[in-house]
Amino acid sequence: MNENNSLKKQEKNFIIPIVVIVIIMLIIISLSLVYMKYIQNLIDENTLKNLGELTSQDAENVKNKIAQHKKILDNLVNQINEEKEISNAKIFEIFENSLAKDEFSRVGILYEDGRCITSDGEIVDLSDDIESFFSSDDIQLSKSRKSRVDQEEINIYSKKIDKGIENIVILLVIETDNYEKIFSGKIYNGEGNEYIIDSEGIILANSNNRENGYSLFNILGTLKGEDNLQKQEKMKTDIKNNLDGQIKYNISGKYYYTSYEYLNINDWYLIIITPGSAIAQEYNKSLVITFISSIIVNFGILIIAIYIVMSNKNKRKKLYELAYVDKLTGLGNYNYFIEISKELLKNNDGRYHLIILDIDKFKTFNKQYGRETGDKLLQQIGKKLKQLVGIDQLITRFSNDIFAILLKENRLSTKEFHKLLEKINDELSNAYIDGIKYKVLISIGVYNIKKNENDIFHVLDKALMAHESAKGNYNHKYEIFNEHLEEKILKEHYFETKMNEGLEKGEFKVFYQPKVNSQTGKMQQAEALVRWELDGKLIPPNEFIPLFERNKFIIKLDTYIFEQVCRDVSEWKNKYNKLIRVSINISKEHLLEKNFVKEYCNIARKYNLMPEDFELEITESATIDDNVDLVALLNEIKKAGFSIAIDDFGTGYSSLSILQNMPIDVIKIDKSFVNQPRMLEIMMIIANKLELKTVIEGVETKEQVIELQNLGIDFLQGYYYSRPVRKVVFEKFIEDMF
After folding, report:
1. What does the pLDDT read at residue 401?
2. Measured distance CA(82)–CA(99) in Å, rounded
3. Which pick of 107, 230, 542, 730 has the fewest CB atoms within 10 Å?
């Protein structure tokens, strides 16, 4: 009995630990299942939150782009309204010369009878839509529709114009898939998809270059399962009621996350769909390992739990990097900049500066040295910016070669801040890649953010204005936004609306400035300069020439001025029986025109003159462009008979190579060297060695004249002799020659 009791007791003692172990294992398994469910819900919550933020960001980008399109149409209509008499051809011309040309595929003019005439020569019947287009005085954006010209999927921006007798509507046509350019790019390594749909689920644009026009609802409707169907119905209901949301659904055991946001434009929605495998594939493996380990090892639960927490943290970091980090440089991207800037500027104390910079002609650099070298240059810029401004500042790579820095300075004075900008320019301009030195040009725009100013898009617009002003300006290392710059931009817009009218009305006047022989003191030559007589005031060329070079109007103006000069020179030849050699400035944009040399020769002969009677001045900065085979162009000009002068000599980057390789006749020394005799001596040695004539600008005193005469400079030009004057005043100089 005692033995039996002992055996039973031993069995009982054996069974109890087994039961305890089984109970503990069951508890651990249950806790593991609950914990895994909790973690999965946490992943879902964080994923949907981040996806929602990305959707909101891209939705904002789409809305901003559409607002920009409306502004372009508004500006176009304003230009049309400013015309006293308007024709279809004039409207098409205004379109061709405006920003709308870059954004839209065509412009149309819709009449009240439904007849629409397009800029590409088509006549389309829109009578069935006439009421919708004429129903409002505001700008309207149509739903997506098939083009009746080329059957492409399009949207139409429209605005009515009251022309008195008959109203018309200006239509700007944009292909719907152009909205795809606004998307963030490859979402989650290309596994995510981004769409713009309407309230019926029809796909208007997508991020994967697929055909549009299909119903997203129909595609999602193939997903079976009660849970999926409920979530689809919720999404459809939300979209019908203009509500935003996020959902997760299951396809054959694989999870997908969806975020949708109303664009408040027509009935459009922005939708992002991404598979859970792109976000938590590795983490799901960790969950399996945790589950198995929890069954085998009791004490492993603590270690595995820690591992899961860390793994979750790492996966969130990976998700964050996919959405907000530029892979090439390791810097934040555009989305990161916008999100962090918004947070920082909430407590803006007036010590923030926004700096935008890029590399001039970066595409040319890539073409010349290779994409790999270009990537290394971008990486080097990212590292240098961290060293120059500090890793605690917000440094991002917007896109391509554009970088943005939100700098908060605590101790820098204004002078020190300017020194920092100069240092950034100097350091980035000289790049050493694989032991080879590369010289690049950096454009920097700066906006000093005012206290309590927290609209990042407004701030960004101003910084970009400053950056655009800095582009191509090789005399300044950076441009800081100020009210004058904003006024300048508004003034330039006004100039653009008046430039064609000014040419037709003869508002552009030719002024002449004498060039005096340094030894005889007599005027022998002259330079033709342009002034714009607008609204009763003379506008100096530095206010409109850079603008005209950017919008290519300079080509028309150059030709107009050359013909005016030919007319004047021909008149003087007949009146005084003496030929006055006149130099005329030629812009870089004009040099790129295929037939400009032939055209100039024909104009000269029209007035019984020869190309040999003129000197064409080309600024030294025009020689910096690697895209221009300037030697070939100048040889063509030289062969035609024109004399060639390099203007503003000494201010560029490659003066000696210019003199050595190019067929020039004259160097026109910049006025900044007038009081630098040692530099002038060096220039004269080179000029004499190469048998080049010399002209110097900016002569203002008798002492300067004597010094320049002693140096042997051939011709002097400046206020000491005369300012640029009108033709009738200049003729007195001609009379003094006899």
Report:
1. 92
2. 17
3. 542
